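To close the chapter, one final illustration. This time we ask the reader to focus less on the individual chains and more on the assembly as a whole: which components sit near each other, and how the overall shape emerges from the parts.
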Amino acid sequence: MATLDTDVLVIGGGSTGAGVAWDSALRGLHVTLVDRQDFATGTSGRFHGLLHSGGRYAVKDPSSARECASENRILRQVAADCIEDTGGLFVSVPEDDQEYPDRFLRSCRGAEMEVEEIPVAEALRLEPLLNPRITRAFRVSDGSIDSWKTVSALLRGAQAHGARVLPYHKVVRVVRQGDRVQGAVLEDQRTGEQVTVTAACTVNAAGAWSGQVAALAGCEVGVMPGKGVMVAINHRLANSVVNRCHLPGDGDIIVPVRTVCVIGTTDHPVADPDDTEPRPEEIHQMMEAGEALIPGFKYTRAVRAWAGSRPLLPKAKSGAVADDREVTRSHSVLDHEERDGVAGLVTVAGGKFTTLRLMAEDTVDMVTRKLGRELACQTKTEPLPGSESHRYYWVGNRQEEAEADEPDDPLICECELVSQQDLQTVVARRPAWNLDDIRRALRVGMGPCQGGFCAFRVAGILHAQQRYDRPEANRALRDFVQERWKGVKLVSWGHQARQDRLDRWIFEGVYDLEHLPE
Amino acid sequence: MTTLSWGAEAWAEVRLSLDHCIKCTVCETACPVAAVTGLFPGPKTVGPQAERFRAGEHSPDLSVDYCSGCGICSRVCPQEVRIAELNSRARAELKRERGIPLRDQLVARPGLLGRTGRPVAPLFNWAMANPLIRYLGEKTVGIHRKAPVPKSVGRTFSYWVSHHRSVPRERRVVYFHGCSTQWYEPHVGQKVVAILEHNGFQVVAPRQDCCGLPLQSNGIFDAARQAATRLARQLSVSGTEELPIIASSTSCGLMMKREAREILGADTAELRSVSSRTYDIFEFLLELHQRGELRTDFKPVPLTVAYHAPCQQQNQLIGKPALEVLRLIPGLRLLELDRSCCGIAGTYGVKREKYDIAMQVGEPLFADILAAGPDLVACDSETCRWQISGATGATSVHPLEILHRAYGGS
Ligand SMILES: Cc1cc2nc3c(=O)[nH]c(=O)nc-3n(C[C@H](O)[C@H](O)[C@H](O)COP(=O)(O)OP(=O)(O)OC[C@H]3O[C@@H](n4cnc5c(N)ncnc54)[C@H](O)[C@@H]3O)c2cc1C
Ligand code: SF4
Ligand code: SF4
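The assembled structure is written out below.
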């Protein structure tokens, strides 16, 4: 079995783990970041996409609100290329508690958030589809943050500073020598080969799975996976984030995410973090909830539904909490040496995508203390690769680029404007284990047709270039299409049902997907 | 999309239609412009797809300007995506941001050109036929030197009609003649009046200005909306509020029937009423015939006529009524030209950068005409007639001119 040596082994390549890798690498530590799947496929790849202004937590969880507000400002500087500056609105509808907006405003100011009440007419001018019956409107600095762009930038940044990244490497065993964790044994999910990583310090950043990873080290982390459901609508019904101005509830935020807008979410405690199948009634609940913000919402075209698992960490060591929303959204860094008498292991859990940088800073502060290497954090000012010019991305960018493209560079994904050259660039940079990896890098298959017209092109091109042999190409195609259909079948009514029938006819009728030779 | 003052509801309806698209590509296979140029990526791409990328302060795409607005895509889409309408709005947005070239300002105002040209008609026509002047016009203003331009005439249609006495009758109609009849082809209007009177109608032709269509297709929406609502008012003179309105220009008729509301988002009580009462001249005559009320005292017309149904006529979704009425004429050999678009699409094909595209779009149609060698080409739209004559040398007429001849007119 091969053995690798490193200063810090980070388990879990979501936003938190990638943030820890970037922070450690910038401080000069040698890092190895591993994930059982591709990076950002856990909660970070299944979240709502909101760069919080803090408004959501202002009344109920002021310390979270304050953290969000200040991290929002920092990320806008250092990770601008991963953010669309959509701005956000909090609007009160007649059914809401009409006292709440004043409390909201006071709390936002208390949390040092940028907030401004605007006339209802102004809000309706900004967002013409908004419920015309709204009674109050506030403008905040919410944004839309792209998880794959962010995690990929963190990884590239860390790698540029010497980090080693191992996707598809699952931690199957934590190596413990007496009271000390000394690393872990990883299993390559593609080949079954094992490798041992020895590390001076191991960081458990496995999010909703951090309880499972801690258990491998004989420790208990009472993380409570909280399932949240989201539904993506075919195009942006709003160009700003639209929040309901009330105590946080279900389905009360619509986030413009690239070409779609996403409504969410719910919060149900689940036993297994891999339980991410939305239930029909949850989807129905989202479509109905949208009506309060955008009348007619439930009749618009939903393209896909999915769910993610919140890594909620109650402050108590373990135990049941009745309502997930009672749990603070701040994060915790657990020192297992102090807590369980197990040295060499730190767990970071809770928190949010928006606070990934702060979570990483707190974690690596503890790691450096433990290693006796006091190195200062640099992530507040060091821009991520791609964000050096501090320019935000914008939904129109791809269309602008497509216009400038060479006419002989055909589009392979028409919905999301991905060209053949884009595909070449991505597969040259990093081998694509499956088409889903390519999707996360390029957004192929994420538009209205959900892979109907691009999946066979991508598989065909990769086969023609001998990156996939025939069985691999067939398997990649089938797996990808079936994965897309999982999310589509949940919303297969109206226009999306027509799309679904056309796509199925193409794949089942024309390609006979079920019986492709392998 | 929030920056122009659209009629909010009509616009929301058009915009939301992008969600109907299932990527079937039918529209792409039917678009005559995408078929001939790589500069235009096609209706699906610039329509329901690009619309998803349009947000905020500036337009991400320029290629939508190459859409001619012929409307074929919207007609063939099995999901009723309002592609051409989406494009039209996107183009208007683009022009609002980038400024509207003088050339487009000019061609968008046929009345302005007509009014300027008329008093000096011979001089104007000489200038328009002068290659040097046309060359300079292309260089400075951007109107292609070979593009078809109408001939100005000395007397307008309204002058003629004000001296014409339509015998008072019980059955009355309002005549919406449009700019080209007013400024360039008053004889078409005279024949319309004669045909309607021959069928027992009194014709009311109120004073009327441009419907705004050329403004619309050149992306000048605010002025277009004003023009359409003004025209609706002009066509609603007191005592005629219930009468059918007969249009002899197909594109202008379509503007009043649908586009003013659906593309421009104009919405007044007068416009709604005018929309519901507007008929294409042949649509009206065919209905008369179906009720047994059309006079069929035709004289034989021993000519071979090739008929082209223009896009804007097809977009009215009324079939090809001109063909059906002309079939009643004895001795007439009628050929149906089964091609989609002549290329001109209003003012599209006169523009320097689009002239070649427009000529290529029309090529199959021109080839059919040249092969058939008819005595006349009949087509309901004036700009298409100019394009066809320009490209083939054939004489082209409004189909009602043939009907007029069958009724004994000259
Ligand atoms: C429905 C929902 C909506 C949300 N919306 C927002 C929002 O809009 N804005 C916001 O700021 N936050 C939001 N959050 C919170 C935010 O998404 C999460 O806090 C954040 O993504 C968690 O990141 P993470 O890296 O801690 O966890 P994850 O992204 O889940 O990463 C953990 C990783 O560990 C890996 N792993 C697990 N077991 C092993 C093993 N044995 N070996 C190796 N690797 C392993 C997993 O594969 C996974 O990739 C939302 C959360 C949910 C559930
Ligand atoms: S309106 Fe005509 S030119 Fe424009 S996209 Fe549709 S078919 Fe093509
Ligand atoms: S024809 Fe209609 S449904 Fe088909 S691709 Fe074009 S716009 Fe979409």
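The interface with chain A takes residues 1-2, 8, 12, 16, 18-24, 38, 44-45, 49-56, 58-63, 79 of chain B (CB under 8 Å). Residues 1-6 of chain B have pLDDT under 50 and may be disordered. With these observations in hand, you are ready for the problems at the end of the chapter.
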